[in-house]
Amino acid sequence: MMKTHITESLPFRNIAGKPARTAALVLMTALLSLTVFAGTMVMISLKTGLNSLGSRLGADLMVVPAETAKDLNYEDIVLHGSTGEFYMDVSQAAEVMERDGVGQVSAQFFLASANSSCCSVPVQLIGFDPETDFTVTPWIKRSYSKELKDMDIVIGSSLNALVGDTLTFYGCECHVAAKLENTGTSFDTAVFTNENTIKRLMDSANELKMKDFGDIDPEKAVSCLLINVSDGYTAQKVRLDINVNLSGVKAVQTKDLIAGMSESIGSVADIVGGLMAIVWTLGLIILLLAYNMSINGRKKEFAVLRIVGASRKRLAAIVMQEALLTGILGAVTGTMVGMLVIMPFSTMIENKLGLPFLLPDIGKTAMLAALSIAAAVISGSFSAAVSAFRISRIDTALILRGDD
Q1: How far is CA 320 from each of CA 306, 385, 391, rounded to the nearest angstrom?
Q2: How far apart are CA 367 and CA 386, in angstroms?
Q3: Is the model's pLDDT at 217 over the cut of 80?
């Protein structure tokens, strides 16, 4: 009974008694766990952000002024969070609405703000018509179910303001009615309001001579039209019809807007996946070498244990228990470090990559953390199993005579 008790406590004593060896094994397992968790989290967040952007656009087509389409200003504003404005006359918008195949239509109005107390740089103000809107309203209703009154605004999740605050744009005070959930897109730094409010802000900017709208009358202008095509028509057919038959406007398919982003995300995913594979392979090799070196240095220790009554199976179990303990400690540590690196700095990562980046929900994050820990522990245990097999074949007599 005494011998059994001694060997049962050995895994804990060996781990505590060899801090350098333990730290090395914990570090390598932590690196494996960190690589899996952080790499997979980045790839999932990029894909989730792209899906979020696609759902926020929420229309088959976007129609913008032709001049704007030439210099891609609309892509910078819609996809990348740049501030700016562009307009077409309502008569042009009316012509678009009359084309065959045009179903749901809703106008939006873009206005770049001057600096405000909510942020250190100008933000994009986006006006919409609640009566016809089918893209912004469903999203806003998740955070604010009431009717958006004149001079009420809804702000993106990244803006430094709270519900109930008052923000001033172009001399007009606006009431923060709601703050939207995080989307991981440029909409997180935007301000949304109804058509009446945005036109009042445009008029005020014009009167204060803070904006030059040129020949465009702010009261008779829209920035873009969002369109869902009618049944029996394809987005491509309606787009071609508008572009061929109407001058001064340009129709684009929203899926084409995010196609470039999709390719960029695919490239980033390939790079991250490649780095994960390299780190994982090197980590496994190093773990195998580390356990092998550890076993070579402990042959006499295991030989003595055989003399005092420990079976070959028990020696292998000691190695596996040590691997399990260091593996769990390292895997949990690596995953926690991954969380501390990715989650608090998601906005910075989004800005650096220039791509939509939306962290998965708590449930998916917890599942990914559990899988990362399991993968790292299994890898460490596999490396230890190779060494445990060697232990089971040790010839005690040869070891004690000093032969290898």
Answers
A1: 17, 7, 11
A2: 29
A3: yes
Q: How far from chain centre, in Å, is Cα 340?
A: 14
Supply the pTM of this predicted model: 0.69
Which has the closest alpha carbon to 128: 147, 109, 111? 109
Name the nearest CA neighbour of 391 among 300, 288, 285, 283: 300
C-alpha distances in angstroms, 74 versus 67, 185, 216, 254, 264? Answer: 10, 15, 18, 12, 19
Tell me the sheet residues that pair with 168.
173
Read off the DSSP letter of residue 238: H
Q: Is 153 exposed, middle or buried (0-12, 13-18, 19+ CB in 10 A)?
A: buried
CA dihedral 82, 194, 178, 105 (to 10 degrees): -80
Q: What distances in angstroms separate CA 403 from CA 196, 235, 394, one per listed residue?
A: 91, 79, 11
Distance from chain centroid for Cα 29: 25
pLDDT in tens, 300-326: 777 777 676 767 777 777 778 888 888
Give the contacts of 44 (CB within 8 A, at least 6 positions apart).
360, 364, 368
CA–CA distance, 328 with 289 (Å, rounded to integer): 19
Q: Render pLDDT for 38-76 as a digit per residue (tens, 0 to 9).
A: 999 998 988 888 787 777 777 899 999 988 777 766 677
Q: Which residues contact 401 (CB under 8 A, 6 or more apart)?
A: none
Q: Which distant-in-sequence residues (6+ apart) come within 8 Å of 293 by Cβ?
A: none
Distance CA 31, CA 277 (A): 12
pLDDT single digits (tens) 63-109: 999 887 777 666 776 766 677 788 899 999 999 999 999 999 999 99
Helix (H) or strand (E) holding 391: helix 362-391
Burial class (CB in 10 A: 0-12, 13-18, 19+), 315: buried
